[in-house]
Batch of 4 targets.
Target 1
Amino acid sequence: MGAALIKGGEISFSTLPGAKIALLRLIAKRLEHIGRFGDYVVKKTPSSSLIAVKGPGPYVLAVEVRGPDGVLISVATRLALKLEESLGVGHDLPSDQKPGSSSHAPVSLSPNAVPVIKPVFSAEIAIDADVLRLLRHVDGLSDVRALARALGITQEEALSAIARLVRAGIVHVRTRAHEEEDRALLKLAKVAYELDERLSGPDEALRMLGSADDILRLIAANLHRGLTAVDYKRLVEEAGLDASLPSIIRALESLRSMGIARRKGEKRRSGEGVRRDIPPTAISVLLTTIH
């Protein structure tokens, strides 16, 4: 646990363990070149989270601690604001907004495009809260128009955010989802999902999930209530998290494929094992685990 201040790629101050310094330098370099003030990168380890936030001018501030990532990001951002006040340094224009930047290469998108998270990718990008909020709604079914409506933003804003994710290699786009695919998924909206009978309770389900994202863990913690996807979506929203109904259904089906959840009344075949892995649809694409 600790903190660090990086200026121009060099460590100005650090109480972090030496093993994290090389990683932190790489993150700081990327934030320095493509980040805007307040953009951040999150790295997950088995015991803690490392949050690096782009500060004023050449500064990057990092904290490592154990706790909810949302709270840690908020704390790190407030520290970056305090640093700005102390130094009197203004915000720099990020390199990805400068004329001629290769990271701003044009991406051809239309309002009918359907963004899909790639099942496998390796990417680190500085990401702001708006892009993160949109990414949580990407379910492989909603097109740009639907995403813009769900988030209350313009189509141009949605296109810009999706283009950034496409350039980073996190999502790809395809043509509009088939109507029958939409209908088949939404038929499950009022199906009740409950904790698999082979598990002793929510605690065991949460242990199986490990460091999965907040939405997946919130749903798993409430499976004993036997709610529908619509009800789980309401719980997620009450917790201050963003998720579309199709993404909630996909999360429930991911839990079902792991042997954590089942549709109400469903009987598992004898000998069918409980999976301990998390399928790609359930993995938080921003929080990378360091092995």
Note: The radius of gyration is 21 Å.
Target 2
Amino acid sequence: WIEPGVQKMNGYTALWYARSRHGTSDYDRMKRQRDVQAAVLEQFQPSVVLLRFQSVAEAGSRIVKTDISQRMLGQFVELAGKARNHELNRVELVPPLVNVVYPDFADIHAIVQENTVVSEGN
């Protein structure tokens, strides 16, 4: 049990909190996952990742598989640094916006398109 309000969590507790299904809906769980992700991203510092790259890479390799080459990682760190200066636009494809039982994919594509901004040169 986690008390309501702002909490400082270690990785184990944050993961348990984000994944817990006890007594709540899938939509509640999805919101908790977004909250944990937002908290992690808020603390993310590209310079720290570069300084601790080896330990971050080792931890990540146990949970993430990718075909992105190591030489591309620097570009992702640079992109992450730029992204910190932009507002995040989030679209939740959940009821009542989207019928999850009988989804209208044309509507979903239109919603995503309306909420996607292409930034030229940034």
Note: The chain has six helices and no strands.
Target 3
Amino acid sequence: MITQGYIKLHRKIMDSPLWQSCKPERKTILITILLKANHKEKTIILDSTREKITLLPGQFVTSRSKLAKECGKGISEQMIRSALDYFEKHDFLTKQSTSKSTNGYTLITIKNWGLYQADDRNQPSKQPRNEPSTNQAPTTNKNEKNEKNEKKDIYNKIQQEFNSTCKGLPSIKKISDAREKAIDARIKEHNLEIVLEVFKIASKSSYLNGYNKRNWKANFDWIMNPNNFLKVLEGNYNSNLKVHNPAEEKTNLEIIDGYEYESI
């Protein structure tokens, strides 16, 4: 799970009947739910079933045990169950099982997600017109620096994961500008987890690892191409790598009276 980024929380939530009626532990659970929700559309793959789910802003998939762990010490699964029922009853969220085959996973949808995000863009500025802004530039520069650092961390993670996962393919020596653009595009279209999942799929493909008539191997740039990326993700190159077995080379031989003869 990616823990980078932030949410904007409006103070008016403290005036809501839901917040005022909540016990302390339920407030902890409520804030954790807001932090877990996606801020933009993305597609995920569930580990247990390989099920692909598209999440909208304000949605996320979790389980009671996972959510209890993320809420911290003192929060039990029973508290999570009770809080989710309470929040659903008060029209704060909806919950539904992702599928019949999933093992305890629940799709959480926060109703009116945008109302819980502070958005002052449409409100007039309270700063006097003739008074220069002294904090705006430093704040902007700091945010830009943080964003660059976050992206650098992602690029480094991509390089490390590709090299360690796709050991049969040419390793990455450097993340060039072109590769940064490709990474940004694939993460925007899908998400970081999907990109790492594609590396795993490619690492298990015999064809992409050179077991083809041309002895051709895929590389990082080929995989990150949008068309190729989607084909790999959809399983078009699925074929598990096999360990070399000399016995398989004798498939055209017949054994007669203890001697091997080539079949005609």
Note: The beta strands are 42-45, 52-55, 59-62, 93-97, 106-110, 253-256, 259-262.
Target 4
Amino acid sequence: KAHAFGAECWVHIPAADRIKSDLASPKAWKGKLVSWPNERSGWGVYNPKTDKIVFSRDIKFSPPGQDDTVSRQEEEPEPPTVVTIEDFIDFDDDDEDQVRNDDEPRRRLPAAAEQREQPQEVVGVGDRPIRQLPQRAGRGQHSDWYRQNFVMFIQELEGHLFPISPTDKDPLTYDEALSRPEPERQEWIDAIQREFNSLIKNGTLEEVIVPEGVNVVSTKHVFKTKYDANGNFIKRKDRCVARGFTQQYGVDYNETYAPVARMTSLRIFLVMVIVHSFVVWQTDVETAFLNPDMDRPLYIEFPKGWDKKNPKATGLLVKKGLYGFKQSARLWWMHLMQTLEKLGFGHSETDWGIFLRKES
């Protein structure tokens, strides 16, 4: 479960750190969440009494809405029980676990718990019920809060769901795209032709007679329907890609590694932005992998739907990067590095995904 920054939580105090002679010594202290755990450290919790941040994996979170009184007994109690959705949804298919036998003796509950017993609510989407929410007794004083908010979430979700017909899914193959009803079929044909025209105009592919004994990499189409933020249809899009798993190592490619900036570097950069009031610009390079030149002659088969201009051609020579090749990401990174170096940038020695330029 994700917890918000600043969430109230309780950090367990090890027995060795408690005052053994004081039976009333608290077993946990209350703090605020300031960082999330990773493979090296636990949760980061701010202790307002010591004004320090402590890292621990043994913590409990207070359920939202908990009354925070000033008495010592309520200020430093036992860590509260963490309540999850599983406490209210029974995932077992056995009906005997969901229906209580009225002949069974009822356990006496505290007055507060007895007041919470209510008829079961049925929640669902449309006319189809999803699951009854069992009103289990003795789950803790905050179970009502979770139950009410979960039911509210399901009810709000109902208005955002809509049925999906099989034709709403993008085709997985060329033949499937051409089997769609009109006008969708023609829209896919147009998208395929736009992709081919773009590859030819960019100088990526050239019809050639493939030399004998050369490995010819197979290809496929990747189809995608584009929508705007409101879910309205924009266009059909096709991407012609190489099936990289048909490449031969040592012949068609060698190195494939492409550096990517580490998250630690990104965090440091954002801190510098805040401290120095820098302006941040974010850009996106369209069809990035199609920009660099190929590092060696590679050949692909004619993609389905390709209209040959040269009747003697037996394949296509790949002159620039193409999506799907194993070295495509590395070729793009090397192309980007060379371009940035011409502009006066140099990569960091500790993180090759970071480029810097000093100006006087």
Note: The mean pLDDT is 76.
